[in-house]
Amino acid sequence: MREQLLSLLRENPSYARTDFDFIHLLRSWFNRGFLVLRQITWDTSASILEKIVEYEAVHEIKNLEDLRRRLLPKDRRCFAFFHPSMPDDPLIFVEVALTNGVATSIQKVLSESREEIDLQGANSAIFYSISNCQEGLSGISFGNSLIKQVAQDLSREMPHLKTFVTLSPIPGLTKWIKDEGLEKLVEDQGMLKQITAHYLVEAKGKNRRPIDPVAKFHLGNGAIIHQINIDADLSEKGLLQSKGVMVNYLYDLSKISQNVELFSKEGDISANTTIKALSRQAERNIMQKGKAKEFSQ
């Protein structure tokens, strides 16, 4: 019902009050206490696997063999939240790669020819795809709880896992670069990395929140901007939306609560020293570009 309401809301702003009441009700019905975390495996029912393929929103699952590569190997995991009233329909799911070291390329994570690693050699969990499944639950966040719960469960199962990071797209980067007139600067890959860091750290809306929706999601959940990766997504979509750049957000379980508080109260962006240094360098280069332009005029 809410999915139908959302489709009408843009042309009928007066429905906003009704939507507000819906959100209040749905948050009550779908609060964390009611949600059940389940691992999705190759043996999960065909009806649920079909929905995983249908709802995957980040990296398309091309066929059953592609799905098998994401679920069957011991170093690949998938987890989903379900509600008891909808036991065969996932609300949100996350795909995880267990690796030795932080993954820097989605091509390598999803490669058909990659070799499965021994779990004893894995020290990192890479959250490489998070997909919401129910349009009618838009605006009701489950991702926050899902990532933290999965990280905690994996940490208990495999104490040798020390690093929990995402390998995330940057969907607003290319548009922002164009809007800021920085296209010439980012032809150099070193400059592209600097500009990306500056975008993630400094590009904010009127509410002092990141304008990039994925950055806003992870930073709001207490993550830290950890590493920027050039040529990390060479798919058509990746090149179009972010010039192939991806970012790792680090979930340090000991600092999540502190980061969430700073972000919600002050709008503080948590980033490591390398990212902050790249952002400052980008700012200097942008200023020099502006001065050079003024001089030429």
Mean pLDDT comes to 86
Number of domains: 2
Measured distance between first and last alpha carbons: 58 Å
CATH class of the largest domain: Alpha Beta
CATH topology of the largest domain: Aminopeptidase
The quaternary structure here is: single chain
Structural class: alpha+beta
Order of helices and strands: HHEHHEEHEHEHHHEHEHH
* Global shape: globular
Strand order of the largest sheet: 1-2-3-4-5
CATH architecture of the largest domain: 3-Layer(aba) Sandwich
Radius of gyration: 20 Å
Largest sheet: 5 strands, mixed
- Unreliable stretches: 291-297
Helix content: 40-55%
Number of strands: 7
Instruction: Quickly count the helices.
Output: 12
Per DSSP, what share of the residues sits in E-state strands of 2 or more residues? 5-15%
Give a structural overview.
The protein has 297 residues and is α+β, with helices and mostly antiparallel strands. It folds into two domains: 31-167, 3-Layer(aba) Sandwich (Aminopeptidase), CATH 3.40.630; 170-297, Malonyl-CoA decarboxylase, catalytic domain (Aminopeptidase). 44% of the residues lie in helices and 14% in strands. The chain contains twelve helices and seven strands. It has helices spanning 2-9, 16-29, 46-55, 64-71, 106-109, 143-157, 173-179, 189-202, 213-220, 236-242, 256-266, 273-296, and strands at 36-39, 76-82, 92-99, 124-132, 163-166, 224-229, 246-250. Strands 1-2-3-4-5 form a five-stranded mixed sheet, sandwiched between helices. A two-stranded antiparallel ribbon has the order 6-7. Strand 4 (124-132), helix 6 and strand 5 form a beta-alpha-beta unit. Helix 8 (189-202) crosses helix 12. It is globular, with a radius of gyration of 20 Å. Residues 291-297 have low confidence and may be disordered.
